[in-house]
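Sanity check

After download, print the first record. It should look like this:
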Amino acid sequence: MEHAMNSRIGILFFSPISTTKKICNAIASGMGSDNPLILDMTHPDARAEIIANADSLLEEIDHLIAGAPVYCGKLPLQAIECLKALKGYGKKSTAVAVYGNRDYGIALYNMVEMLSQNGFNVMAAGLFIGQHSYSDVVPVAIGRPDESDIEKARKFGTQVLNAPKPLNIEDIPIQWDKHSKSKEYTALKPTYRGKICVKCGRCAEVCPTGILSSETGEYLNRQAKKNCIGCMACVSNCESEARIAKANPIVRIMMNRVLGQATRERKEPVVVM
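Expected structure tokens:
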């Protein structure tokens, strides 16, 4: 534990509904740091600041925990933008991808690849499970990460301290499917019910893409709706239920086909060191 206390830990995460944030915090706790440097790249202004200060941002840390969710088997473009900007200068790092109990695709592989190319020594990598963004339509991984997941994340953090050498990219697992092979991202857009919206502006505040009006709750324009990533941050933060996850019968059938297996089994974290 003395080694842990001497290491300055930083956390970089993209976490619209806080699942990735919880996992990364638990890993940091396992490494002996309950007060890590927090670099939240979830929101547009924060990402712009991270990118603008990428060269000096990590001067005060020794080990970076980088975490992001998996969308369509890939990292979200917003997280990729930040990860590509950072320079490691030989610092240690841990890569974390959080997926909704279906498939993790190429997300973790790409994160390790980017961190390594940018000069980080990636000592460990982990795949953890979080509640699926579309669980209001198809109930997948409800309540995860749960206590068991958090405890495993803490244990992983403790193990990271003793990782003997940087990972080889060949050690990182990949799950190829049509989603991870495609460059496209398909997203279920939240349904907006303007008649019950109280115009609190909370949805615009938490939206990681900045596409909602704080005054009306509507998309800023037609293009803004196309830019929705389906993270459901607006849904999970809307107390009046003016924004909900809803699918028509045909889309629901398709979602059940894709996510059906994920509703019937519990996947567990996978770590590589």
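If your output differs, re-run the checksum step. Summary of this record's structure: Residues 191-246 form a domain with the Alpha-Beta Plaits fold (CATH 3.30.70.20).
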